[in-house]
Specification:
Spore Coat Polysaccharide Biosynthesis Protein SpsA, Chain A, 9-stranded mixed β-sheet, 11 strands, 23% strand
Amino acid sequence: MADLKLNPGSTTAIILAAGKGTRMRSDLPKVVFPIGDRPMVCAVVDACLAAGCTRIVAIVGHRQELVRDALKDYAAKGQVEFAVQDQQLGTGHAVTCAAPLFANDASQSGNKVFVLCGDGPLIRPSTLRAVADRHVSSNASATLATSVIPDPNGYGRVYRDASGKFVAIVEQKNCTPEQLKIREVNPSYYCFDAAALFGALPKVTRNALTNEYYLTDVPALLMAEGRRVEVLDAVPPEDVLSINTPEDLAMVDAVYRKRVTK
């Protein structure tokens, strides 16, 4: 395993695990559904640990006792802590709920924090290492890993200007007809400078269509402040397979099992 170029500063992670699994036709949190005979969130934690994260905070909410139980072995080792999102007000709000746990990290320049989704079990440590290396080498405030996929339906689109420069992440519900044709999507692999992230979150406003606070607004806010945002197409399309139905779950489980038996 290649060493991360992480000095100065630490590398931590926030895993979003507070959501419901509504389309899974179940009241269970989506992240506790099994992939490879374990709750899928465990695969995300493993990837973070393998990529060198020294601290992981899981954001819990809906039926949080089940998510805490799924991660109890990690918590017992001091590898995972928890923050509570008591209302479903979007990804930006979820990360804000972890802010008190990162007060020290945010006060020191160079501390990095991944923000990842707990329902993405196909995440690879190598992808996280690539994101972290670009983040450090470019001295960025935020670094996003994107993916170009055949069917972008359901994903936020990576909007670029005519010269190919990153402009913003546009949630699907807010896309224009032209933006809906974009196949470069946001699979929610973020690396932020901790101080920049927690400094920008209070400036995120509610989305007019959904009434939620979106983490996807943060990169554009940082660029408006003159900060550097890096974007790299680093996520293989297979890794961003969505899990929204029991059928999707079976498909991702088959991919995951094939990988771990290689």
